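Q: Here's a chain of 148 amino acids. Please give me its 3D structure as tokens.
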Amino acid sequence: MLDELDRRILHLLQEDGRMSYSEVARILGVPESTVRARVKRLVERGIIRKFAALINPFKAGYSIVAVIAVDVEPSKVREVAEKLAKLEEVDVLGITTGAHDIFMQVTLRSLEELENFLLDKLGKIDGIKSTETSILTSVKKWGYARVF
């Protein structure tokens, strides 16, 4: 369970992951050793999965961000999800409820790469019955998991 200090530390690090522990401590009015210990505990518990830069793919040479709904044979949903999760193009993937079995977000450089991904990679995974692809024409918010 997260307490208020954990939430405040996470909020600051989500806003600026390069913020030093001493700066976090100064803002929150706690000792740096407290921040260091809290972050270490959050990492050990898997609450902080990793420290990373959030990239704007459109400014980094990618022109396609797509959301792909995948329909799978019921007995193979987990197996297919595990295979899809290993593909480098896949940014986010989850087994879902509702009209489709799996949703994923992919980032690619071009329509040609999207076509190759759909035909050469997804098309070769046993158990996939169909896909439905939507290309994002613009992104209004890039985010991350909020915990508060």
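Q: Can you summarize the key feature?
A: The mean pLDDT is 94.
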